[in-house]
Amino acid sequence: MRRPTKNQFSGCLIGQCLGDALGFLREGFPREDCENYVSGPMQLWHQGKLDDAAGTGQYTDDSQLARELMQSLVDCGSFDPVDYANRIAAIFAEDRIIGRGMATHHAAMRLAAGDAWDQAGTPPPSAGNGSAMRAAPIGLFFDDRQQLIQAAHDQGRITHLDPRSSAGAVAIASAVFLAMRMEEIDRSAFVSQIARMTATLDEGFADSVCELNRCLSLPLDDAVDRIAVLGVEPGKSDHWDRISPFVVPSVIWSLYSFLRTPDNYWAAVCTAIRVGGDVDTTAAMTGAISGAHLGLEALPAHLAIRVNDRGSWDYDDLVSLAERCFERSVDG
Ligand SMILES: [Mg+2]
Question: Taking 90 as the threshold, does the pLDDT of residue 153 lie above it?
Fold first, then answer.
């Protein structure tokens, strides 16, 4: 296991924001549209051949809330659920959130009305990916696995009470933690460690993580067909083409996208988006894991430089925040 670097912290946060911004332009689109987008405009942007590169660079709720989580960790020096809950309530109350998820929206309204942080979360069976999509900074900040699991769970249950959503948050934080520390990605060790870390929250989720071993040996079309229905009750269809915001398939697809090409950020984000569905979130989670593994220099710089939140919290601000998080985590 190698020692984490400042570049990996920045790579994780910028990697998340860039994946999110790229996916945002096709959020909720069906598979065929996303396939055409990845093989058309995205390739041209990557090659620097189309000047409206990556749209506006605007990232969405996934990365806005991950950024707020990182700010909270830096300011508090630890995970403080009351501070983070206040930040979630504020970004919704001030209407700064972009592409809101309804479970998070309703929890934010309850927080604003005075509910305690551990009472406001949306109850099961709602089990969206809203708590997983923002969990990456937890994987950067903590170097103790039990503390990481607890913090990923606690930040998650502010908005999502279903244990599957917490398991998804633990999976993303654990993936960032492991990707940053493994010099070379050993796929089966990576999968089994994430399964172990999620099993404490939800054993069914951990079983779905283990499916990755089989899916990684399948052609992409077969892998997505398998992963899209993980955790879905037999006979129930969600009508998404292809990866829905349900926490199980969207988190597993993000892990798959990273593991398919662990040494190539761009290819991983393309895999996340090309199959359609909740692609801003799958690309955000994939981008965070890949950026944590490879570091900031592995991202396409001419596209990364464009990320912003309505003209503020741009590339330089985010890199500076990630560097402060690195210093705080090492000193802390
Ligand atoms: Mg979003």
Answer: yes
